[in-house]
């Protein structure tokens, strides 16, 4: 039986092309987690965010672990005023896993 494993989180910023179109989609990819019922959630500047969230169902990988993804859609102005965007993976019987993204690292994209 597989031991409970917190997923590895990767947060991907919106592309420059998308920002030029006036929108911003941030993607959170969770990989190598177990069991399948981890939940992904978002925070913008430390505040929970539920609008504009699209969650994909878990996918069982060949190694017996699961992967998930979630996207967060923001307007260009929301993206430009955000300083920190966090993706949290939570499970009732495990410690939460958090990956934060500092939007100021992409100041040249705004």
Automatic annotation (TrEMBL):
Stored Gene3D superfamilies: Immunoglobulins
Organism expressing this protein natively: Cirrhinus molitorella
Keyword tags: Disulfide bond, Immunoglobulin domain
Record's protein name: Ig-like domain-containing protein
InterPro entries in alphabetical order: Ig-like_dom (IPR007110), Ig-like_dom_sf (IPR036179), Ig-like_fold (IPR013783), Ig_C1-set (IPR003597), Immune_Resp_Modulators (IPR050380)
Domain Ig-like as annotated: residue spans: 7-98
A Pfam family assignment: C1-set
Transmembrane feature ranges: none
Domain of life: Eukaryota
